[in-house]
């Protein structure tokens, strides 16, 4: 199922925002949508290549997306680069975004035809038991401390 990402969340597409940190914890897939929200006329969006991104090279003005509510559907895999081409917003104020687009997210895989159930004494089962025992002990200690 496709996800819609509002770039910069509540801040939107603006200057002096860390888009690298914003994108770091997100996973983008083919079919997802990027929504760039800003006041029209104050910013714009250019899709650029890696070199133009690094150098903040602004493409021709007719390539800009300028509505203030720009929706870009991610249609291919790989790195994608976006910059603001207004004044020096990219170069001096960090208004640029780079993401990596992965394959379209799929529904959960069907169960294998010959499922194997781990033995109760498998490493996974033991570590799970130890974790539960540790958590129970911590809860008991918390009650004793009160």
Q: What is the secondary structure topology, with strand pairs?
A:
Layout: E1 4-6, H1 19-24, E2 28-29, E3 33-37, E4 46-48, H2 50-55, E5 69-73, E6 78-83, H3 89-93, E7 96-102, H4 123-145
Parallel strand pairs: 1-3, 2-7
Antiparallel strand pairs: 3-5, 4-6, 6-7
Task: Describe the overall structure.
The chain has about 150 residues and is α/β, with parallel strands linked by helices. It has a domain at about 5-100: Cupredoxins -  blue copper proteins (Immunoglobulin-like, Sandwich). The protein is about 25% helix and about 20% strand. The protein has 4 helices and 7 strands. It has helices at about 20-25, 50-55, 90-95, 125-145; strands at about 5, 30, 35, 45-50, 70-75, 80-85, 95-100. The strands form 2 sheets. A 4-stranded mixed sheet has the order 2-7-6-4. The protein is globular and about 55 Å long. The model is unreliable at about 120-130 (pLDDT under 50).
């Amino acid at each position: 199922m496709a996800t819609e990402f509002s770039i910069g969340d509540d801040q939107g597409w603006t200057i002096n925002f860390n888009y690298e940190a914003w994108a770091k914890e997100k996973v983008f897939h083919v079919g997802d949508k990027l929504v760039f929200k800003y006041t029209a006329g104050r910013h714009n969006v250019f899709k650029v290549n890696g070199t133009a991104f690094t150098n903040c090279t602004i493409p021709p003005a007719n390539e800009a997306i300028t509505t203030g509510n720009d929706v870009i559907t991610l249609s291919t895999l790989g790195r994608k680069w976006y910059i603001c081409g207004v004044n020096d917003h990219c170069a001096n104020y960090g208004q640029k975004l780079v993401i990596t687009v992965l394959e379209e997210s799929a529904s959960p895989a069907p169960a294998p035809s010959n499922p194997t159930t781990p033995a109760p004494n498998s490493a996974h089962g033991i570590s799970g038991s130890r974790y539960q025992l540790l958590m129970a002990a911590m809860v008991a200690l918390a009650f004793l401390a009160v």
